[in-house]
Amino acid sequence: MATTPAAAFEALMSGVTSWDVPKDPIPSELLLTGEAAFPVMVNDQGQVLIAASSYGQGRLVVASHEGYLLEAGLAPFLLNAVGWLCPSHGAPAGVHPSLASLASILQGSGVEAQVQPEPGESLGVYCINAYDDTMTAELIQSVKLGGGLLIGGQAWYWASQHGSDKVLSKFPGNQVTSVVGVYFMDIFGDRGQLKVSKKGPRDPLHVGYRAETETGQQTPQPCTILVEPQDPYSSYITPRPVTGAPLPLDTGGGCMLLEAFGWEPFIQLFAEYQTLSDIPKDNPGKMNLWVQKFSEKVQRN
């Protein structure tokens, strides 16, 4: 069984030569903050569309649209995902009724799969969409005790009905995947060029903010930042491009300041960073400027 992110990525991508994603589904960008979470599918804009992680004794694979779990063209990856998620060879996969055609894809490739409304002790893997809020505790406990979970969905429509400010904490899928630091966001995922990586992509963290246009409308804008483990400031996220704002993380991968102050100061700060022209090029200078600006936003020293 693959135990490191590199080995896990290799197992998930074995034999996958292309991403034959369906054209109609519009995915949601995924936000990765968890220490064990890693990207699997990343588009040419740097947005994560499929991610994976471990939790307790089990594992999760998260897809940015449930349509990806129903696409026969993605069968090589789906088979790898179920195999990687399964704690014991040959254990059956359970499939939620909303993903019934996934059971047919798996069965057609020799995997024992059965449609059932909830996970069970006899199952090695359970597959479900991200919209069910009736089994949150059960799904988390199942993974924690060694089961596998394949979950897919998009959050942009839910956000249009319930509010973007509630997505991270209230969207049903996030109530499950947040335990590993993977979040469905309300930002559309670009469906452009998708390349298959031979090695695991670098770990991007995308923080969404809303920039106001000339007409006064607010539109989602992604700010892309990448982990630089070789950097002496490895407990930070270093921005790409360099005009972005660094985001401090604690050693467990959680956003310390996010928990303390919420998203609003980050949204304001990222918007302000797009207007600055004198950002230092060295990391200490960037960090000092960021701390100064963030302190101004939250009115704390």
From TrEMBL:
GO molecular function, one term: transmembrane transporter binding
Pfam families the record matches: Peptidase_M60
Name listed for the protein in its UniProt record: TRPM8 channel-associated factor 2
Peptidase M60 domain span: 257-301
Cellular component GO terms held in the UniProt record: plasma membrane
GO annotation (BP), single: positive regulation of protein targeting to membrane
Species of the source: Vicugna pacos
Domain of life according to the entry: Eukaryota
This protein's encoding gene: LOC107034133
